[in-house]
# Entry
Amino acid sequence: MQVYQGKSVFGGVAIGKISVYRKGEQQVKRVRVEDTTGELTRYQEAKQEAIRQLGDLYKKAVKEVGEANAAIFEIHQMMLEDEGYNESVTNIIKTQSVNAEYAVAATSDNYSQMFAAMDDEYMRERAADVKDVSERILSALGGGTRSVVNTEEPVIILADDLAPSETVQLDKSRVLSFVTVHGSVNSHTAILARTMSIPALIGTEIPLDDTIDGRIAVVDGNRGLIYVEPDEKTLEEMKEVQKREKEKAELLQELKGRENVTLDGKKIMLYANIGNIKDLAMVVQNDGGGIGLFRSEFIYLESKDYPTEEEQFKIYKTVAETMAGKRVIIRTLDIGADKQCDYFHMEHEENPALGLRAIRICLTQPEIFKTQLRALFRASAYGNISIMYPMITGVEEVRRIKKIVEEVKAELVAQNLEFGNPDQGIMIETPAAVMMSDVLAEEADFFSIGTNDLTQYTLAIDRQNLKLDSFYDAHHPAVLRMIQMVVDNAHKAGIWAGICGELGADTTLTKEFLAMGVDELSVSPGSILPIRKIILETDVDAYKEGKPC
Ligand code: PEP
Ligand code: MG
# Structure
């Protein structure tokens, strides 16, 4: 047994095989296609081929192992005929104009996640079947298996670090845990692990070679350790921890459907952060009251070229419709810094975090911004969409945004295109925005505090630099005072203020946030129920008076 220490960014225990991720290896690619009818035909043909193969397997199995044991192949055939599954694949091809492989992989991920989260054990086991039949269609499509995760079973991904553009390609239903050599607590991999609620380690000194690929390992996200080829005793201990955590998670499920209200009657909105349409399943499973942050830049990162208005419109509309009237806050693109897109052709910058990113790109290239705004405004006619602008520093930027918004609305009117009236909020993630929050509150419908960047810019600490993690103190009194100031200024102007940075999910601060009057917390889906539990058990007034609560 070898043991390596890393830094935990999400707890829990994962047991499985290691799959070493090497740059350049890709899974099923999302490719835009013109000829969607051709793609639909390819899908139908591949499906028929898969059904034929399963028929052959059934006949062979009946002879060899008897009818009862062969039934699985019949069930798989039936799954391929499932109306919902087929509709999902064809819908993705048609609405997103993408290749059949991607549509099958995305449907497989969604369905298997959904089954895996069901209470009924029999249904949970169907998750593996969905993946199996999807894999069969994928190979019939000529795509073969997905290379990063070479095996059928889910694996522990071991990588140097994963760029956002790489993680968007991963088949997430096959990832048990992330372990990286580099990265930081605020890196995208860490945020993704939290979204997926799987254990993850960063800064782990572990060899990334063939000697470790495929070995059995245990990731202990609670202690920041990875055991490669664990001994019997460790394996048993870790299985026990895993079992207890599962029981705890099951208990939390009982909180589904409950209001987020404290013992003394204070309510708070508890929303989810997502980066992708696929994350919606996790939001629904964890009873998210809405989406507090949809990082729309991931649509750009997944594309080979600027996503069109139509492509974006369909995605935003799907999210709004899926959330069925619950609030969906979509942040306009936050490209730049660590989120680089080749086709943006960004020039090299000495300090990308302080460079041309987010709203600065939108204001310097309004045609890109307008495409997104048109899609957002149009989609807002189909649900409860709000728009949120990142990296604001002052009121001048907001006025420039509003001017562009008015132009967009006028164009939509002129074209007779339907659109809604979304709330428009501001991310408070620069110290300048905090200091101007009294004035900004007059210009916005809501505030959402991005504590990841706010901490970086307030403490002058690069959030991507692992070596600075010990200095990156999101509990720093300067940050907490800023949050209080923003909340107070929001309330004075009659608007609400929430937190969508990672700090919002810090359960050691939940009571403090309630006492501060924070109106909304937007967190990774897996953090919703643990936070709800604290809210339900808190008496805010007693907490403020320092009484036990
Ligand atoms: C933040 O900065 O806190 C935030 C939510 O945005 P991102 O992490 O995407 O920069
Ligand atoms: Mg930010």
Remarks:
- Residues 36-65 form the longest helix (30 residues).
- Residues 254-543 form a domain with the TIM Barrel fold (CATH 3.20.20.60).
- The chain is about 45% helix and 15% strand.
- Residues 293, 295, 334, 429, 450-453, 500-501 surround phosphoenolpyruvate (ligand 1) (CB under 6 Å).
